[in-house]
Amino acid sequence: xxxxxxxxxxxxxxxxxxxxxxxxxxxxxxxxxxxxxxxxxxxxxxxxxxxxxxxxxxxxxxxxxxxxxxxxxxxxxxxxxxxxxxxxxxxxxxxxxxxxxxxxxxxxxxxxxxxxxxxxxxxxxxxxxxxxxxxxxxxxxxxxxxxxxxxxxxxxxxxxxxxxxxxxxxxxxxxxxxxxxxxxxxxxxxxxxxxxxxxxxxxxxxxxxxxxxxxxxxxxxxxxxxxxxxxxxxxxxxxxxxxxxxxxxxxxxxxxxxxxxxxxxxxxxxxxxxxxxxxxxxx
Length: 283
Fold this sequence. Notes:
This protein is mostly helical. The chain has two domains: 9-59; 66-273, MetI-like fold (Orthogonal Bundle), CATH 1.10.3720.10. It is built from ten helices and no strands. It has helices at 10-57, 68-81, 83-113, 118-130, 133-143, 147-172, 176-183, 189-227, 232-241, 245-273. Helix 3 (83-113) runs parallel beside helix 6 (147-172) and helix 5 (133-143) crosses helix 8 (189-227). It is globular. The protein starts with 9 loop residues before the first helix and ends in a 10-residue tail after the last helix.
């Protein structure tokens, strides 16, 4: 067995290190402005929307478009009166996304690693993706008496196919060279899963999570509106029935902020988990 030996002298190493440091600094400097530009663009869009709301509210009745100040007062009122409903929605969202992630990853791995069951699992997942969300909501009302079971079932069947299909595509995208190399050591199936497949699909799991967060928030609100008397969706339904559009908009802005916060959390976890992976920049 031949072992590669590093024959670079120490002075050469120090010179190389000095050359690499400025390049790393330039790369870091390039990343920070991009993040600042995103934040700046988001702030500009928010300001434009608020200005448009203020101008529109001066020409239409309050029940059509309230002013930003009115919406802010409604948001303050809801923040102190409805924290329980916010907590319930967040717990439902977190549990449903985690369980859908685990189940979807397992199904995706089974589709990628076991050719005998792949066609059947793939058919089930594809059929699931073709069923409208409204159909699942109506079916859940017939099948389950408990509102929590209804909401959990709705989110599970809607989010699971995203993880299953993306993980399956991640397994298919494994480089053939890596597969041939690890198979040359005659590993067990568990070793292939641990050392090759799982590290490879982590990026696909994070990508799927970032893609479904906003969709999952919309679905949990819709499910609460249809199948529950507790949660943000139920409170929005109550605001609509009492013609409180200021509360509807206040809840809407809260959900937008929640989506941005969850996206930032997932992005941070992705950077920590995939810090070993070099990022390519296309000019």
